[in-house]
Amino acid sequence: MSLLVVGSVALDSVETPFDKIDDALGGSATYISLAASYFSAPVNLIGVVGSDFPKDYIKMLEQRNIDLEGLQIIEGEKTFRWGGKYHHDLNVRDTLFTELNAFENFNPIIPESLKKARYVCLGNIGPDLQIKVLEQVSDPQLVVCDTMNLWINIMKQDLLKLLKKVNVFILNDSEAKLLTEEPNLIKAAKLIRKMGPEILIIKKGEHGALLFTGDTIFSAPAYPMEIIFDPTGAGDTFAGGFIGYLHKTRDLSPKNIKRAVIYGSTMASFCVEKFSTKGIEDLSHLQILERFREFIKISSFNESD
Amino acid sequence: MSLLVVGSVALDSVETPFDKIDDALGGSATYISLAASYFSAPVNLIGVVGSDFPKDYIKMLEQRNIDLEGLQIIEGEKTFRWGGKYHHDLNVRDTLFTELNAFENFNPIIPESLKKARYVCLGNIGPDLQIKVLEQVSDPQLVVCDTMNLWINIMKQDLLKLLKKVNVFILNDSEAKLLTEEPNLIKAAKLIRKMGPEILIIKKGEHGALLFTGDTIFSAPAYPMEIIFDPTGAGDTFAGGFIGYLHKTRDLSPKNIKRAVIYGSTMASFCVEKFSTKGIEDLSHLQILERFREFIKISSFNESD
């Protein structure tokens, strides 16, 4: 049972108060696949890069058992590049440049062998492309979809069409307010679920995340981090840990979905500890389990003696 | 063993998108005392009002077993009045007016019988007045202190002097960042605890609260509320539920302090459901226990089958 991940693969140039890096590995599909790879194998990545995409990155992804059959490498094109700079308050960032390059004409093509994929994670790319992917998958059991403010602003109709076809929708709190024009997150969640997705996750950065499934509302804490080296990719990594854990456990009970949210948060906490994807390239299962247990400590208050 | 509560007693005029009310009961000491009264009796309130303070409010407070021996009623003066207006986004409010009146020359005098109080809650008033209170209490065991951005801006030196004498400091996230000039809350918490208080609570409104005690970090969820009628007093009510529960249980273990944070959050969730103090005037212990249990549901993710 395949786990299909679609999204961007990019070369990121990132500046934080701590350091600066050029042409580092980035992109939503990259972070999602890496995070999911700790739970499921293989993860099938669908994306596009140019012929300048470093072989070392290919090698690292393959070593993490990420299947790149669906990664198009366009000869003579350059890879999608994004540059951003984080402020002293890491919640604030400026985009310095966006060069679409090979991504500009991206037409996601799902290899024949993957059209029967049951778990699909639509990383943050245009909702028109996300719809194109779903049209090629015959009978998905769980479709997880991420988005961003840009698409809410410029492609809202496509996004609304897409939302009717996804099971789990992940977005952050400011995006939820933008999409619904409702400042109360609990009300906003109700409105968004009426748009289609039965399961909704609102990410709140340093404040954790809210999960809505059935009648369950779950408030997940954030991992208390004193030093965040690079917030880039944290949301994608969350989505990857989340769907990876669900794909591994095949259990969509509210209880297990809650745990998947915590595994998503666990992976995101590792992601931000290092630049680019470095924080999630080489983790042990013990490290992941230990951090999962720290989340229990942070949030439990009714433990017996 | 007395529980002493010091702070403002006010008449509030509040406008929200839902309703409008004039001269309703308000003030930090009022909310704290009411919330604490569900756990401990009597609660001893220290404050000041004018001779226009409605007898009905006195009666209601006394019916909740709040001892008003320390409430000064200044003949010929008017009661402190505050007017505020909340926006569509209830996180945003404008102060319309502040009339100090009787509060302008408030000199908190602790009655002889209360100078041996062991539990003291310093509600939000100037840190100079909070220090004056502590100078009159001979041997407090637990001093809980609240503050606001105003005092950080105009009386920072007094506040820093005060912080050396308190055990628990409660403030909100924007105040923590303001006090330390540090955008990362975990780092800010470390800096604030170095200023004196061994226990620190950072309130985050709709995102819950963070508790720091010993090596323990605890992330408390917020109660998911679709409709908030009036956010006024929520922070004070939190402090009241928190110290009331600790005063009742006499247990300062991290485990019990976590529970106190949840009881504080529980009381705050009732507070905002109605205008002014109405939401916390007439609760049953069963209602409080049931909501406490809902907090367990909202935040637990590792329950066994």
Mean pLDDT of chain A: 96
Poorly predicted sequence stretches spanning 5 or more consecutive residues of chain A: none
Write down the secondary-structure element order of chain A: EEEHEHEEEEHEHHEHHEEEHHH
Oligomer designation: homodimer
Structural class of the secondary structure composition of chain A? alpha/beta
Which radius of gyration of chain A do the C-alpha atoms yield?
Answer: 18 Å
Number of helices of chain A: 10
Sequence of strands across the biggest β-sheet of chain A: 5-4-1-8-9-10-11-12-13
N-C termini distance of chain A: 43 Å
Shape field of chain A: globular
Number of strand segments of chain A: 13
Largest sheet of chain A: 9 strands, mixed
Determine the strand fraction of chain A and express it as a percent band. Answer: 15-25%
How much helix, percentage-wise, in residues of chain A? Answer: 25-40%
Largest interface in this structure: A-B, 41 and 41 residues
Which helices and strands appear, and what pairs or packs with what?
The structure is a homodimer of 305-residue chains.
Chain A: E1 3-6, E2 10-15, E3 20-26, H1 28-36, E4 43-50, H2 55-63, E5 66-74, E6 81-86, E7 93-99, E8 119-122, H3 127-136, E9 142-146, H4 149-154, H5 156-163, E10 168-172, H6 173-180, H7 185-194, E11 199-203, E12 209-213, E13 216-220, H8 234-249, H9 254-271, H10 285-299
